[in-house]
Amino acid sequence: MSLTDKHGGKYEGLRPRGAPPRILLLGASGQVGSYLADALTTAGEVRALRRAEADFLKPRSALAAVSDLDPQVVVNAAAWTKVDLAESYVEEAFLVNSETPGLLAGWAAGRGALFVHFSTDYVFDGEKKTPYDEDDRPAPINAYGASKLSGEKAVARAGGDHLIFRTSWVFSPRGENFPRTILRLAETREELSVNDDQVGAPTSAGFLADMASMAVQRHFGGRPAPSGVYHLAGSGRTSWFGYANYLVERAPAAGFQINPRLVVRPTRGPDPSRPARRPLNSLLDSGKFARTFDLTPPRWEDMADEFLTLLADRGPEA
Ligand SMILES: NC(=O)c1ccc[n+]([C@@H]2O[C@H](COP(=O)([O-])OP(=O)(O)OC[C@H]3O[C@@H](n4cnc5c(N)ncnc54)[C@H](OP(=O)(O)O)[C@@H]3O)[C@@H](O)[C@H]2O)c1
Asked: How many Cα atoms occupy the beta-carbon half-sphere of 315 within 13 Å?
């Protein structure tokens, strides 16, 4: 299904003018990156570098690898995403999430290339009672969030064309993530305890990849969006407990085995086994994105339904 089919035909006529742009994708093995590898082919000629070819822990050699390819667009889906481990590997998290992206964005700025980057709701402290917009003051409460905020600033400071999509609670049929863990545990467990006081909106990796590809198409189709941060997350809200219940209730109809005796219990407060604190409110207001790109993100429940269907089709080893 094409982007146009999926999102209501709004993006016809956005094919790049002239030769397709050379797009370099970094982080192609990740949840978002693996979808980007497909989605970006509608926007240009895609080259993807693996970690071994552009290791963000080695900023200078990553820069050399990127500049050798001389892309017109750099899409950076690479990141240190291990939130708890970042507490004890702060320097490494900052190298991967801030220093190297800043260096690459600086190269892109010098070459007039577009830099597309992803960030997180974890840049906020979670104390606000309503969804965060782009004008709210970031105040990260863990090392991962601090490293991602530093990365946003480094990309912006580079001064070139850039789009930073801040998102939340990313999931995909590929990789390790909350819904896959819940489905695996729900098969055999009789009880699951899941946090009910952190709220947010799950966001599918496939949707994020489609939106990034659409933004690149717009850029080269003569309608570039202003550089800056855009909040981009599933519509609606839930807690981790609400999310787990939704999955467990829908899973049998999609063909998953769920223990019939399973009870999902709500918990409150931080999990003492996790070194990193989590914000209570992860809700992002995607209004600026919707106004700029004329597209409202789908409800998180619809994305979760699609996830269940895709995962059921692919099987457990997907
Ligand atoms: N996951 C979430 O819930 C979430 C929420 C909000 C925002 N985000 C943001 O969304 C973006 C995409 O996240 P994701 O969920 O797709 O992450 P992911 O699945 O963890 O993928 C991370 C990618 O980064 C690569 N990477 C890690 N360390 C690297 C290094 N030293 N050098 C080069 N590449 C390296 C990984 O390669 P390997 O396969 O080799 O490890 C992988 O391709 C990130 O910017 C993340 O901060 C994620």
From this structure: 1
Q: Range with the lowest mean pLDDT among 44-48, 111-115, 236-240, 311-315? A: 311-315
Q: Based on C-alpha coordinates, what's the Rg of the chain?
A: 19
pTM (2 decimals)? Answer: 0.95
4 — pLDDT class (breaks 50, 70, 90): very low
Mutate to test the pocket of ligand 1, among 60, 92, 170, 171 (most ligand atoms within 8 A of CB): 170
Among 12, 302, 1, 282, CA closest to 122: 282
48-to-9, 40, 54, 69, 114 alpha-carbon distances in Å? 28, 11, 10, 10, 16
Active site residue 132: no
Which residue carries 């970031």 as its tokens?
138
DSSP secondary structure string for all residues of 163-191: EEEEE-SEE-SSSS-HHHHHHHHHHH-SE
Confidence at 13, pLDDT banded by 50, 70, 90: very low
For residue 63, the CA-to-ligand 1 centroid distance in Å is 18
CATH class of 3-175+202-236+278-298: alpha beta
Res. 16 pLDDT band, cuts 50 70 90: low
Residue nearest to atom 24 of ligand 1 (CA): 78
Amino acid type, 3? L
Q: Enumerate the β-bridge partners of residue 200.
A: 238
Mean pLDDT of the chain: 94
Domain chopping of the chain, boundaries? 3-175+202-236+278-298
